[in-house]
Amino acid sequence: MKFRNLLFLVLILPLVGVCQQISYTEPEREDGRTLDFEIIGKVGGNFLVYKNIRNHNAVSVYDNNMDLKERVELDFMPDKTLNADFISFPDFAYIIYQYQKRNHLHCMAAKIDGSGKKIGEPLELDTTQISTFADNKIYNLAYSEDKQKIMIFKIQKKNEKINFKTLLFNSQLQLQFTSRMQMPYDDRKDVFSDFYVDNDGTFIFAKSVKGGSRELVSKLILFTKASLSDKFNENVIPLNKSYLDEVTVKVDNVNKRYLLNSFYYNQKRGNIDGLYSAIWDKQADKLLVQNMAEFSDTMKREAKAEGGIKFAYNDFFIRNVTLKKDGGFIVSAEDFNTQSRSNPWNRMDYLYSYPYLSSYDYYLYSRSYYGYYYRPGNTSSSTRFYYNNIVIMNVDKAGKLDWTNVIHKDQYDDGDDNFLSYQIINAGGELHFLFNELERRNQLIADQSIAPDGKLTRNPTLKSLDKGYQFMPRFAKQVSSKQIIVPCLYRNYICFAKIEY
C-alpha cells in the first residue's frame, strides 16, 4: 500500500509542477517606465501588445514563449494620435484611433493580422469639425460581447445639453446605422455610467441624478436605444427614498437582461447600508427585480476589522460584476482610499471629481474606470494609496443576496498604485483573484479562488517570481481560457509575463 501511494505521488508531481507556467518577455530598449501600453490579445497564435512612447506607435509580437518575433511600426498612425482602442479576433485585430489635423478630428480604423502587419488601408469612420479651444478627444468605442456589433460614439456638451452621435458597424466595419440624439445635462448633478452595446446592437447606459455635486444619487434612469432607432427609451427606476452611490451597468446577453448595481444609503448623509441590485428585462421592457440587501453586523465586521462597524463599507467600491449562466451574478468590491498631506480623502471627490479629465472625455462620465496605468510623475509622491480587503457577493437571479465572502489583503504604496489592487481570472468553474502580497520582503502573486458555492481556496503563490520582476496584476488581461498576460517592471523597463494554468 505504501508503494502504491508513493507511486501515485511520483506520477502526479510532474502535473503539479506545470500547472502554472510563467514566461517573460525580454526588456526592449524603448520600453521604459514612461511607456503607454495596451495588451491587445492573442491573435493568430501570437500575443500582441500595443506600445506608445513619445507619440511613437508600435505593436510588439510575441510567440508562445513570449520571445519577441517582431516590433512592427504603426507608421500609418500620425505622430499626434490622440488615443487608440483595440478589438481582437482570432485571426486579426482592429485599431480604432483618432487624430486631429487643423480643426478637424478624424476617427479611423485599421486592421492588422497576427504578425502585427496592416491588412488593407485604414478606413475613415467619421470626422468632426471643432473650434480652436474645443476638446479634441470626443470619439469612444463600445462593442458587443460577441464582437459582431461595433459602435463608435461621440459625446459633446453644448448649452447644458449633451449631444450624442452613434455609428453602428458590423464585424466587417460596414456601417449599419447612424443616429443623433440630445438630452439635458447638468455637470453638477448628472453622472453617466459606462456605455455598452449588447449582441443585438442596443446601446445601453444609466444616468444618475444627484441633488448636488457632493451629494448622493437620488434618481436613476436607464437609457436604451435599439440598433436601428434614432431615439432613446428613458426608463426611470424608483429608488423608494433610498440613495445610491456610483451605479454600474452589466449586460447579460444570455438571459436578455441589464443589471444595475450600487451601494445604497438609507440617509442622505449616512453610511453605506447595503447592496442595491436591479434587473431590467429587455424582452418585456420592464423592471424585473429590484432589491436592497442590507449588510449585517457580521458582514461588516468581516469586511473591515478596524473602526466602527457602521463605517465598515464606506471605503468600498464595486470593481467587477461577473455573470452566471442561471441569471445570477457575483459582485466584487474593494476597500480603497488615499492619504495625502494636501487633500483629505473624500469619496465624492474620488467618484466625481478627477482633476485630469476634460469636459468632453468619456471617462468623465464613467467613474468605474480605475484601471489606468499611471506613468511616473503623474501622481504626487506625497499621496499614499491603500487597497485592502475584497468583498465577494453572490446575487441570485431574483436579485437576492445569497452568500458573501472576504479575501483579506493589506496593500499600500506611495506615489503610484500600479502594483496594487487585483485582477479576476475566470477559469469557468471558479474565479481566481490575483494580487501582490508581501512575504518576507518579497513580492509574490497571491492566488485565491472562489467556487460557485462561495468556498474560498488559498492557492500556492505563483512560482518563478524570483527573477526581479514586479507584477502589475490589475492591468492583466485574460487572453484565453487558461492564459493571462500580466505587465510587470524589470529594472525600470516595462515587460510582460504570460501565466498559463
Helix/sheet category = mainly beta
* Total E-strand runs: 36
Major sheet description: 5 strands, antiparallel
Which percent range describes the beta-strand content? over 45%
Mean pLDDT: 88
Give a written overview of the molecule.
- It is a single chain.
- The chain has 501 residues and is mainly beta.
- The protein has a domain of 111 residues.
- The chain has three helices and 36 strands.
- The strands form eight sheets. Strands 1, 33, 34, 35 and 36 form a five-stranded antiparallel beta sheet that branches. Strands 14, 15, 16, 17 and 18 form a five-stranded antiparallel beta sheet that branches. Strands 19, 20, 21, 22 and 23 form a five-stranded antiparallel beta sheet that branches.
- It starts with a helix and ends with a strand.
- The N terminus is likely disordered.
Helix and strand arrangement:
Elements: H1 2-17, E1 21-24, E2 36-43, E3 46-53, E4 56-62, E5 68-73, E6 81-88, E7 92-101, E8 104-113, E9 118-129, E10 139-143, E11 149-158, E12 161-170, E13 175-184, E14 190-192, E15 196-197, E16 203-210, E17 217-225, E18 233-237, E19 243-244, E20 248-252, E21 257-265, E22 272-281, E23 286-294, H2 297-303, E24 316-323, E25 329-339, H3 347-352, E26 384-395, E27 401-407, E28 411-414, E29 422-426, E30 431-439, E31 442-450, E32 456-459, E33 470-471, E34 477-480, E35 483-490, E36 493-500
Antiparallel strand pairs: 1-36, 2-3, 3-4, 4-5, 6-7, 7-8, 8-9, 10-11, 11-12, 12-13, 14-16, 15-16, 16-17, 17-18, 19-21, 20-21, 21-22, 22-23, 24-25, 25-26, 26-27, 26-28, 29-30, 30-31, 31-32, 33-35, 34-35, 35-36
